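ERR on first pass: missing label on line 2. Operator R.T. fixed the label and resubmitted. Corrected input:
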Amino acid sequence: MKKIAIYPGTFDPITNGHLDLVKRAIRIFDEVIIAVAPSHKKQPLFTVQERLVLIKAAIKGFKKTKVEAFNDLLVEYVKKKKGNSILRGLRAISDFEYEFQMAHMNRRLSTDMETVFVMPSEEYSFLTSSVVKEIASFGGSVKGLVPEEVEIALKEKFTIQKDIPE
Ligand code: ADP
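pass 2 clean. output:
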């Protein structure tokens, strides 16, 4: 049976930490599907379409990896994709409580899949999309933290935002 992992998240925007996780997952799974959730509650900076374009550029050349948007209940989406695992990242203890809750809830909703946690490289352990946005919003450099396309997109976003009078 093909081992397919679904990697769900907001990816607003994708960072080198997310990519580090995908690279590790490719070694375990036959296919990794990055699944972008709209996450309206989080009021994302980038639209789903923009996030998809940025991820597509970032995973160019990656084997066995693709990206899609999804809007269903996660377990239903995983079934639809014939997936058997949900991939999530664990950076620090602070991630644990939320991830623990989600994994148990998803297990309650479906017993056909497992949540698999992967740790990123140490250098990305404190990297979040929120921190990246915060730095970029003040004109700071996010080089090395995100793919180049994301760096450019962040600059553009915040230049446009600055042009809008408060
Ligand atoms: P969500 O809104 O689902 O938390 P995120 O895009 O913030 O979406 O994160 C998606 C997944 O990627 C989560 O499991 C998160 O722990 C993981 N993740 C985020 N940043 C990193 C990172 N720097 N290293 C490893 N995993 C990460």
